Each structure stands twice: as C-alpha cells, then as structure tokens.
Fold histidine kinase.
Amino acid sequence: MQISQHLKSLAINKVLDKFQRLSIVRKIFLSFLILFIILILAVNLLILNYQKNSLKSQINENITLLLENLSKDAIDHIVFFDPLAIDEKITLIMNSPGIDYIMISDKNGRIIGHSNKKELGKFIKIDEETFKKWQYIDSEEIRHLNIPIMAADTFIGVLRAGISENKINQYVSDAIKNLKNYIFILNFLALGVTILMSFMLSKTLIKPLQRLKEKMSNIQADKLEVCQNPYIVLCKDILLCTKTDCPAYGKERCWLITEAKENCKLCHNIDCQDCYVYKVSCGDEIGYLIETFNEMIIKLKHSLEELDKATKEKLKLEKSSAMAEMAMTVAHEIKNPLNAIKASTAYIKSNFEGEVLKEFLSIIDRETERLNELITGFLSYARPVPLKYEKADLNRAIADVIKLIETEVKEECKILNIEFDNSIPEFYFDNHQLKQAILNLLVNAMDATKNGDSITVKTLKKDSKVLITIADTGMGIPEELLNKIFEPFFTTKTTGSGLGLACVERIIKNHDGSITVHSKKDAGTEFIIELPLKF
C-alpha cells in the first residue's frame, strides 16, 4: 500500500515537474485545453443523462396512460364479449416501446385478450389481490401491473401488463444515438475552435511578456531600453487637460516627471498610481509589470548618468586640485625672485642713466609685472576666496562691469546690446566674485569679436531663478573644444593663463548655479548662467 502511494506520488510529481518546465505559452494552451475537455465532458454527461431520464419518464407515463385508457375502453368489449376489438386494441398498444405483454381477462379469470395468442382461453386466479391496483418488478427487470376493470362499482375483468426496463433502456439508447452523434460533431467543432482560440489567446497574453524578456536581456548587454507599451495614453487626451505649461503636457508617462507628479498631487490630491491615466495606460497586470520595469529603467539610466557626471566631476576636481597645487607651489617659488628682480630694476632705473639702459629696464619691468599678474591668477585659483554673500541688484552689478569695457567696445566699433529684466528683485550673491565672472566672459567676448560684431548681455527672471546670457557673434569655438574650455590652463589664446573660464565655472557653482555654452564656429558663442534667487 505504501509502495503504491509512493509510486502514485512520484508519478504526480513527475507530471507536475514536466508541466513546470513548459513555456508559459504551452502552459496557458494546455490549461485552456484541459479545462475545456473537462467542461465539455461534464456538460455532455449532464445533457445525455437528463435526456435519458426524461425520455424514460415520458415512456413510462405514456404506457401507464395507454393501459389506463385500455382498461376503460375494454369495458364495453367485455360486456358485449367482443374479443376481436380487444385484440385490436392490444395489438395497437403493443407497438409502444417497453411493453412486454398485455393480458385482459373477464370476471371469471378467463383470458379473452392477450398479446400472446397462445394464452387465450386460459384462466388466471381471481382473488382479493385481483381487485386492487398493484405492481412489482421481478428479477428480469419487468414491471408487472394489475389494473382491475370496473363498470361503475362492478368488477368485470382485469388488465395485466408487463413493462420491460431493458426494452425501455434499449429504446432510449437507440433514441439518443442520434443525439450522441450530434453532440460528438459539436464537440469536435468546439474543440477545434478552442484549440485555435487557446493558441491565439496564449500568444496574445505572452506577447508583452516576450517584449519584456527581450528588454531585460538587453540589460545584460548594457542596453537600457524602455519596453514598448501600445496602450499608453496621454493625460491631455484622457482628462482633456488644457494646462499647456505643465511639464508633462503632451508627453508620455507623466507619472515619471517629478514636477508633474507634484502638480497632480497639489491640484487633484491624487497619487499617480491611483490616477485614471496610469490605470488605462497599464491595462492589465502585465501592463503594470511593464510600466514598473520602464520606471526602473528610466531611474537606472538617470542614476547612471548622474554617476557618470559625478565621476567626471570628481576627476575634473582632482585634476584641478593637483594642477592648482602645482601652480601654487611654482607661483610661490617664482614670486619672491620676481619681487627681487623688480626691486633691483627700480633701483637701477633710479640710480643709473642712459636711454638704452632705461629701455631694457622698462622691458624687464613690464614682463616682470605680467609674470606677477599670472602668478596672482594662479594663486587666486589655487586658493579660492570663500563667497561673501550680500543682498544686491544683479542688473546694477552687471552694468558696473559693462562700464569697464564700454569704452573699448566703442573704440573697436563693436555693437553692445543690453537687455535687462527689471523685474529681478535684489537677492543674495557675492557681488565681487560674480562681477569677476561676468568680466571674464565679456573679456573673452571682446577677444573673440572684431569690428562690426555684436555682444549681447541679457538678464531674465524665470520662476525662482535668474538667467544671465552673454552672447557674441564672433569667431565661435570649434565643437571638439567645447568640452575643454572650462578646464584649468586650457586656452587657445597666445596670451593668458587659461584660468578665466575655470574661475567663472567655479564661482557660478559656488553660488549653486550652472553655466552652459552654445557655440558654432564663425557664428558666435553664447554663455548662459543660471543662478538661484536667494532671499
């Protein structure tokens, strides 16, 4: 017994194990097929049993009714002794299915009508049981009936009949044979349709999962791609939103845009996962799975971009720090000899005469001063001064810087355009260092332009930020150099330390701002500074 149960359990586990190893398409297909077969077998059995029982019940009721009618019709034929009429009636009823025999006797027990002609004239025993209605079933499954024939209250005869259950069953089996054939044909057609529908349904259900599987495989190949969702909808189409200034307006997957999520939470007090747009876009559970995967991919891409950006920034800072440390060391070592050279030059100029001597001393003095400025620049970059915040007018600060170059711009016949946004309020920034950054950018613009070119300085308040744009129509920067211009000591000029733009970037970043550059060779350059409004 235990061995049998063990083998049974082993067989079931083997079948389940094989089923688990099947693909989802085959699992769905087989599940639908097995479910259909079980369902159709149950329905068929139900229909056939119902039809069989119904037909048997109908036959029995019909036989009972015929025998009852025969017992009534036989009264006149017994009274007037008309055995031919009785025989005709019996022959007619014997054509009904399931009747084994019919016998009619008179009040003395003489058989005057019988389905078996050999029994005519014989006698049956008349006793008390003869005057009662009764029935019994013998060992051969024949139900015997006794129906007394009464004329008013007078007993004139008896009708006895045998009803064979086997004959009825055989008749019912023959009768429902055609029904079985019809059901078989219908089942065959339904099975074909079910197989086709199961195959198509399994393919339809598995299609999005296959797309998801493909995209997940791409992750292993460092391809972070969003899985396609054909049911995705736009909030402007579903909610008929007209808020065109919303960051998510007209864009897919508004629930991944932080500002849009905050707006929805603020305006409609609803989370994205509970939003109708999200639910419609996801559709079923597989859709939710795909959108969760897409959200993960987008966040992962964003994180990798941030990590890459942070890594580059770190390398840049390490490089700048190393170069600044080296520059500071070199500058410190050079500054003292330069001061000695300058002091000696001044002493010689004061105590000795001669035009040639003065001319050479002036050259030494001028070059020494230039070297001093370079070293001062190195030291300023290597040892940055902390920001000194003060509340000031940005437009006025920029105007002060413009005054320094205004005369030179006019002398070189260049065009200076100024567009200040007067709605910018006073806010906190380091007035001195920001002026230095603006001056560096304007000096670069002056160097990059020639007669007839224009330089534009523009300010603009945008939400909680201020944009400062410095653009020129000069020679522009080659595209391959754009990512290097903020590196320390990088310059394309024959003079200068190459620290100007590096200092500008550091000053802006210290203000928690950002600077971007757009340039095209021979078309000009545009620097855009973005500063937060700090009150």
The two ends are 87 Å apart (CA to CA). The mean pLDDT is 84.
